[in-house]
Structure formats: structure tokens, C-alpha cells
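User: Integral membrane protein, Streptomyces iconiensis:
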Amino acid sequence: MELLVHGVGGSTPQEMLGDPRTERVTGDTTAAVHRRTEDKDAERRPEEYADKPVPEAYCWSNLTSGNGARALWLILLPFMVVNLAHWMRPASHNRHTAVRVHGLLVRLVALSLTVLLISAVCEVALDLIAWQCAGGSACADGRSWLAFMAAGPEGTGGWWSQPGRRLALAALLPAAATTLLWWLSHRTWSAYESQPPLEKAVNEDDPAADGRPPLSLPGFWYGRRHVARLRAAHTAAGFLTVAAALAATSTRHDRGPGGSPVLDLFGWGLMVLIVACAVCVVHVVCRRARKESTPDRHVDTLTVRALPGAAIALTVLAAVHGSWNRPDWKSAGSLPGDETFGVLAVLQGTLVVALGVVGLLLYRTRPVPRTALTGLAPAAVAMLACALGGVLSGGVAQRVGDWLDGPGTSGVGKEAQIAGPPTVLTWQASIIPLLLVGVLLLACWFGFRVWRTSRKLTDDVQAGYPGALPDEGRTRRIAGAVARAGLTDQAPWLVATVAAVTLVLGGVAVLGTTLTGKVPSEAAAGAPDIVAGFAGTVQALGSWMVGFGFLLFLTWGRRAYRDPSARRTIGILWDVGTFWPRSAHPFAPPCYAERAVPDLAWRMAMWTDKEPDRRLVISGHSQGSALAAAAVWQLDPRTRRQVALLTYGSPLERLYGRWFPAYFGPSRLSALHGDLECWRNLWRLTDPIGGPVRLSCAHDPEHGPDVDRGPLLDPLAYGRTREQPLPEPILAHSDYQADPVFDSERDGLLARLKAAREGLAGVPHQPPHQHSDDPDHSAHPDHPEPERAAPEKREGARAHPERGRSSG
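Assistant: Predicted structure for Integral membrane protein:
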């Protein structure tokens, strides 16, 4: 059997199987295995399939790009990015404490993002609307929806006009946002990540147990207990943020002139309880709870129920305390948002720096070749998550502030009706133009490199098609496709630049707020004209850009709800970003692999278990190759010997191996290679995503050449030929099945499996990978890296296919 797994963007069973008539074999409307109608009962007619495989298609696209409600997941983008940072840790060598600290720091960054998002909602609802706008006659006039709680002149107004009662009512908005995040996380867990993994015996007493690849552990794709604990902690953190905002405001009034000592004492007691509950939240987040050696089905009921319950109770008490009658309480100015957002910015910067230090220490223990940013990738990605969180929080505050301020710019100028959002958010928005200038300069540099590289490749492209009539335009297009595909390998530079500039300028924003207490344009009022003009320009541009970024999220989400093509584009983002389980942030979009990997593992195990002579090739394209590899890792060794792996357009080494070295590094892929009977990987120079897996058997000639077969010809023909009279397209990342090499390699894998089962293999099988003391280090660190082959070698790969045949 050939089990096909599609890649990003999804595909239909009809497209994968090349037949309009297909039937579902097993599965549901979310993810299922399909066959052609004529192959539905192929097992009953084995004589008809003696020389060809039975094709099956596993379609999982609805896990990421189904109904329009998933457009709401765009708001969860910072949570998804910080969750990726958890899995990007460098490979380690007996540094268990450092690994735990690395995970702890990422979880703390994730917790700060939850607090940041809820603080932004509190800023909008409590400060801008209930405190500033409803408390000022100029802003409240003309807004009928604020009339019932607007403060009238000289203390007149309704029951809701007292500041504490206005704040208590407005607190329903951040409380609802926290509830929505909890509901989304709980609902998606039930729908996507609650599938039981394939059960298999694990000998924990085996001396090599600690050296097993993590993705082979039975509980890797089932983190029910861990996600439940984190969900409870983050939900409690959201409600505690609301409670702290309410209690701090009312307590600040009660301890001032005219305040009530009794209410002041109650408020301080409430603050002590809020701090104690916050300490419990941090303790739950810091406690290591993820268990992978076995499926952890136990749930800490006390923690999951008591912690959010206590936080909700404190929020209600804070609202009741603030609603108590205080007739002399008037709202003026703004709530202390600068302190809150400033502390969060400093905390996030400190955690990111600490994460970078731990990443460098782990990398220096035993460097793994081609690791992205030499161990700094988790810190850089976590910084990007914080930047995205800042854009969302600052964007919503700035847009709402400008909307409430009417014709003025919130907090700026004499026409301002309200004090506006916190000053630190304005400073942070002002760094966005500078950041974009840096990104633009880097993009120009990349564009120049593409142009220069494409010019250098023209001769090589022409040499790769001997006998073809030269065509300058055709040559430029092929060379340009190769040059642009190479940009993927430069992605770490872009990520590092954006993260470093964001960290530095973010520190400048906090420092500027602390020293001046004014927005950039006002702080530069006494400076030379060029400095003052520059400050005013970046402030205006930053305010507009941060608001535009927030509106872009909303517009894209609305379009995705209505437009299936836009919904599919958003689904592609989640295909790449939600492969990993939710280990750092429980409010991240759901992990589709926790459904897809068990599906594939169960299908392969059940099909091969019925008859020991059955052979199976699992064929994965693009992201499907990562799912296929993860599913093969989940099989027991006996079943694995009945399975061959065919990958094409695969990011296993080029993206996953570089960015997630602890899970897809050289030693991990080498272990997978050794455990399989055979594995072949097809790739093209024009492919911007897929590439070679760089597993060489050159150290042992008896076991054949590399796993990789490529680079394949793309396009298959340079110009018009008798066999191909119309121009052949540059396929890049798509349609690998169109290459004749695909069928030959698949048939070769099946033949090798058959020969191995019959004991007639002409080449001895490679023994299973022996795990060394360093499970994350490459088994052969002294081998030089294979370079990306030049275009002139592609024709040779096609003309002599036996040179690329691997024994696996």
C-alpha cells in the first residue's frame, strides 16, 4: 500500500489519488483516509495488485482550515509564536537542569503574554472608556451608550456614575475575554488533541531508554494533564489581572484624604489575597508537568478547578469593593497604566535575555551543525512573540483612544478630550517605523543577493540541459527560481535582526517613558527642530501603523470568515505554526498533529498487523513529510520494518532540523534512518521549502549512498521537444509526482521491502541506530555537510538514476 499525506494548504482526495471517484475508508469529516472506488476492496483481490500498490490518501486539511470561526485564531498569533520557542531549544548533552530552566523561561514569557493581552483589554475598558471618557463631560457628550454611567457636572449622575461602579461594570469586558480564551482552549482540546495515541510497550529499564528520540515516546502527542494545568493557570492569571486593576484603583482612593479606613483595610486584604493567588499561578506554571514516556491521562482536578475559581471569586470581591458607595470619588487623569505596561516590558526583555543565555549554554555543550542562530533561535522567536503582543495591545489601545478623542489625537495637544493610552505604549508604537526601515534595508540586501546569484547561475542552468537551444529569458527564469528558493536559508538573519532591533528599541521606549514621562513629541519639544520633527514624525507614523496593524488583523479575520480562499491561506499559517503540542501556552491554536499523528500511526499499525507480509510506503509531501516521520517514530520496531518512507519537498532538515535541533537534529534523523528498512527523499533546487535531509551512508559503503535523491530536474524540459511540445512549468514545491523519478523510487522502496521480507536482499540491512551517550549529537559529527548541488548536476541525477538509489 502507498499511504499519501499532503502538505500545507491541503488537498482533496480526488487530487491526491488522481480519480474523481473516491470513498472514505476510515475517519470522519475532519480527517480521514480515502481510496479510489475501484480499490475499496483491494484486500479481497490480492492477485490484481501483485505488481502495484494500493493508493490511499490521508486528508487532514480540515484540521487547520475548516470553518470560518477559525479566523478568530489570528488573535492567538503571539501565543502560537511563543509556543514554537519552547520546541526550538538546542540539542543538549546531559544538561537536564538547563533544559528545565529553558522550558521554565519560555512558560514565563508565555504567561506574561496572557497578562499583557488582558491588561490591554483592561486599559481599553477600565481606563479609556469607564475612567477617562465616562468621567469627562467633553468625551461623554454625544455618546448615548455612555449616558447611563457618565459623570454629570458637579457630582450629578445616576447610580453607575461613581468611578468604582463604572469600573466594575467595565470589568465585564476583560473577564469575558479571559472566558473566551479559556473556552477556545478547552473546546479545541476536545476536538483536536484528545485522540488516544497508539499504545506500545515501553521498557523503562532499558539502558538506552534515555536516548530514544522524543517523538518516538508514547505520550509525546498527548499532553492532556500539562495543557489542563496551564489552561487553569493562565485563566486564573487573566482574572487576577482584572481583580488587581479594580482593587488597586479603589484602594488608591481609600488610602487618600477622605477615604474610608474600613474599605482601605478590606482593599489591602484583598490585594494580599490577589498576590497570594498570583504566586500559586506562577508556581503551577513553573512546575514541570509534561510527561512523555507514557500517555498522561491523569488530570489535577483540584488545580484545574480551584485556581480559576479562586481568581473569579477575588475578581467578584474586587468589583463589590469598588462598587461601594463613595460619593466624593471623582475620576481625573488616567489610571496607572505606564507602570503596568512598563513592568511587563522590562520583565519580558529580561526573560528573553535569560533565555538567550541558556540557549547559548546548551548549544556550546555540543554544537550541532546548521543549528539556527547557534542556540539563540528560541530567544529571538520569543522576542517576536512579545513584539506581536505589543502590536496587538498597543494597537487596540491607540485605535480606541483616537476613536474616543474625536477630532483630536488621544492625549496629545490642547484639543485632546482624554489623557489617552499609557505613554509607554506610545513610545513602543514610535519604534515601529524604525523597525520597518531596518527590515526594508535587509529586504533590499536579500533582493540584491537574489539578483546577483541568479546572474551567476545562468551558465550553470544552461549546462544542466545539454543540447537545448539557448533561451535567455527561460534561463533567467530558472536561475531566478533557484536563487529565490535559497532565500529560505537566510531566514535566521531576518529573525535575528528583527528580534535584536525590537529588544534594543523596546528598552529605549521604556527608558524614555521613565525619564521623561511624556510622549516622544512632547519630550523632544526643547530639542533642535530636526530632532523634534523626527520625534513627531515617528510618533505619528507609529500610532497610525500600530492601529493599522490591529485593524489588519480584524479585517483579515472578517475576510477569512466570508472568503474560503482567504480561510485556506490562514490555514497554511497554522499548518506550519501549530505542528507542535501546546507546551508553553495553552491558549495557542490547537496542535493538529495530536490528531493526525495518531491517525497515521493507527492506520499503519492496524493495516500491517493483519498480515505479516504486507508492505507499506508512507509518502509525505512538504508538511506531510513531518507528519509521516512523526507517525513512523510512533510505531514499534517490528512494524517499522514493514514500512518504507518516501519524502519529497520535505522541510525535515532544512527547516525542522535547523530550527528544532533537539527533535529533528542529525542524530534524530539518523536514528529514524537506522530504524527503517529504507527511506528516500526527493528535492529540487527550485523548492523554497523542501531540501535534502543530509543523511549519508558514505562511512559504510555496504549500506548504499545517501538517502537523498536530487536535485531533480525542474523544469523537466528546457524548451520544446518532440515528447513535450509545450513549455514545461517550473514546479518548485509542487507536483513531485509529475517527475518520472517519483514512480521509480516508490517502486524501488516496495521492492526493497519485499526482498527484505523474503530474506533475499542483495545488500545487507543497516542495523538499528545505536544511541550514544549524547542522544542529540550527530552519530557522525566528523562528516562534512553536503552542499546544495549545482544545477549542472541535475541532468546526471536524472540520466543515471541508479546513482541515487539508496538501500535505506
